[in-house]
Amino acid sequence: MATRVASGSPSEGSRPLLVSTDVRAGRVTVTGELERTSAHHLLDALEALVSSEQHIWTVDAAGITFCDVEGMRVLAEAHSLARSRGRGLVLDGAGPFLLDVLTAVGLHRLVTRPTPGPAPSLRDTTRAWS
Questions:
Q1: Average pLDDT along the chain
Q2: Count of other CB atoms within 10 angstroms of residue 2
């Protein structure tokens, strides 16, 4: 697992972005502020998942404490990147703040909630974005 502190120039009191990549699991964990100076590091981490055998990439968003417009743009671009590589993308663990922001801009379909049974197939994930 690779971990990177991807802090741009955080303002006073802000939390730097911490990005961890688990290629084997097809999972990227993001903690801190997903904002204009650091959000691009999420795409870098997802690009590393190309070598993963997982068909569904997961972004663990439970630790995201702030997300600005650039963070939203990167999340949308992350979805496009996954699709261009023949993969699905799910955003897991989004807190109330992030859920509200995602809903406001129409990206709430990225969020999955745990359900009993097998994991969603690539077809199910792609259909949710169609």
A1: 81
A2: 11
Q: How many domains does the chain have?
A: 1
Between CA 69 and CA 74 the distance in angstroms is 9
Beta-carbon contacts of residue 109 (< 8 Å; ≥ 6 apart)? 128, 129
Alpha-carbon distance of 1 to 20, in angstroms, equals: 7
65, amino acid identity: T
Structural domain for 26, as ranges: 15-129
pLDDT tops 50 at residue 78 = yes
DSSP symbol at 118: S
The CATH number of residue 24's host domain is 3.30.750.24
CA distances to 21, 39, 70, 89 from 28, rounded to whole Å, are: 5, 13, 18, 11
Q: Which residues contact 43 (CB under 8 A, 6 or more apart)?
A: 74, 77, 78, 81
